[in-house]
Amino acid sequence: MSDKKIGLITIHRANNYGAFLQAFATQEFLKKFGDVEIIDYKNSKLESSFDLVRVNSYSLRGLMGIIKDLLRLVPRSRVIKKFKLDINEKYNLSKRLDFKELDFYAKEKFDVLVSGSDQIWNPVCVSKNDMLDPVYLLNFGKVTAKRISYASSMGAFEVDNKNHPLLVESLNNYSSISVREIERKKEIENWIDKSVSHVLDPTLLLSSSEWLSRFPHKSLRVSQLSKKKYILFYSVPKVKQTRRVLEYFSKLTGYEVVSIDQDIYPFYKAKNKLRDASIGEFLHLFNNAEYIITDSFHGVCFSLIFRKNFFAVSPGKLSNRIVSLLSVVGLTERLIKGADCINKNNITSIDYNSNNIEDKIELAINNSKSFLESAFK
Fold first, then answer.
1. Element (H or E) spanning 38, and its range?
2. Could you tell me the pLDDT band of residue 106, with boundaries at 50, 70 and 90?
3. Calpha distance 112→104 (Å, rounded)
4. Of 121-130, 274-283, 337-346, where does the model show the most confidence?
5. Measured at the alpha carbon of residue 138, what is the angle toward residues 133 and 139, in degrees to the nearest 5?
6. What 3-state DSSP class applies to 274?
7. I want to staple 215 with a disulfide (CB 3.0 to 4.6 A). Which of 99, 142, 227, 280 is the partner?
8. Cβ neighbours, 10 Å, residue 181
9. Using CA atoms, how far apart are residues 150 and 309, in angstroms rounded to an integer?
10. So what CATH class is 4-205?
């Protein structure tokens, strides 16, 4: 291992499976290049996801959110406790830092700064206003520190005139830039005189066996559920068509439905709904599923990691991340718009060894690893 001191800034304190897993995966892979710390930056927007009852506004929508949190108080308190436990046990965290403390701490501590994956360059996700947070653009630390982005994402954010100058100025200070969506590579290359790489989400840098070795415990309830074949349902943007696909698919296969869902969401049938699944349970449920129905980007990532049969229901304008990933691995036909896209002829298992799918996945993983290996030279 190198003696480099690496500071990783990403979305890490959030009650969100994808956010936790991408942060953990980035940390684990970066360990081969040096001593890694996840910078424990205080972000009140993200950390509000751990409030038992979130009060964002007193609009009708805000009040409905408060009522929803009150109705799921018990499972919500359990899952938040599990997330906090994993954050403290699985992350190598710096001390807690606000914006003013961060610059001095980083100058003293880090030779390399990495802006990680997830939607760190999307103000909707990380800011309470509509402005980019300069911390996620590495506007801190010593000038001589190497600055690298790995699979950083803007999501569906359309860069406006208010944010464009900060984004361009900051990215010009990076030595190596990579993004998670293909179209963002081209966009950024039009703004700055630097090459930009397209890489995979960091969750895909760890193999299925590496994930299970890091979260080896299979809970009793997951062990019980795994005795029968089941369809795993994991929905994040709550696309209506996803529920219809699930209902139709369960009728076609006859399999029971198991869902990972913190929401109240009573509008679909699932014999087993896990509203307080731990990170380990999330992983083992994906690993043991016969089929997976999802509208989540990270739902697709873990379907691929565990080489599962799956359908991804398009979340509309939010689908760019899924489209980009499935295009790379040659599985765009698994992204569907609704139940009418499924029939008895196309629910057959994905043969990962046909059409070079396995080769495409491995090539994309190796290219993503190579980006980081070159960036750290």
1. strand 34-41
2. very high
3. 15
4. 274-283
5. 75
6. strand
7. 280
8. 21
9. 28
10. alpha beta
Residue 341 tokens, joined: 């896209």
Q: What are phi and psi of 39, to 5 degrees?
A: -70, 115
Determine the residue type at 105.
Y
**Residue 79: C-alpha distances to residues 50, 89, 161, 216, 277 (Å):** 9, 15, 40, 19, 6
Residue 293 has pLDDT above 90, yes or no: yes
Cβ distance 201 to 298 under 8 Å? yes
Do the domains at 4-205 and 208-364 have one common CATH topology?
yes
CA distances from 294 to 172, 239, 335 (A): 37, 9, 10
Burial letters 216-252, b for 16+ CB under 10 A, else e: eebeeebeebbeeebbbbbbbeebebbbbbbebbbee
CATH 3.40.50.1580 fits domain 208-364 = no
| CA 278/CA 288 separation, integer angstroms | 15
CB atoms within 10 A of CB 207: 12
Residues near 53 by Cβ (< 8 Å), separated by ≥ 6? 66, 69, 70, 73
310-323 pLDDT per residue, tens:
999 998 877 888 99
**pLDDT above 70 covers what percent of the chain?**
96
Torsion angle in degrees (nearest 10) through CA of 224, 226, 231, 235: 70
Banded model confidence at residue 355, pLDDT cuts 50, 70, 90:
confident
Average pLDDT taken over every residue of the chain? 91
d(CA 355, CA 376): 34
Q: Where are the domains of the chain?
A: 4-205, 208-364
Coil, helix or strand for 113?
A: strand
C-alpha 332, offset from chain centre: 19
Beta-carbon contacts of 250 under 8 Å, excluding residues fewer than 6 positions away, are 231, 256, 257, 269
Question: Using CA atoms, how far apart are residues 145 and 245, in angstroms rounded to an integer?
Answer: 49
The two structure tokens encoding residue 278: 């731990």
Is residue 1 scored above 70 in pLDDT?
Answer: no
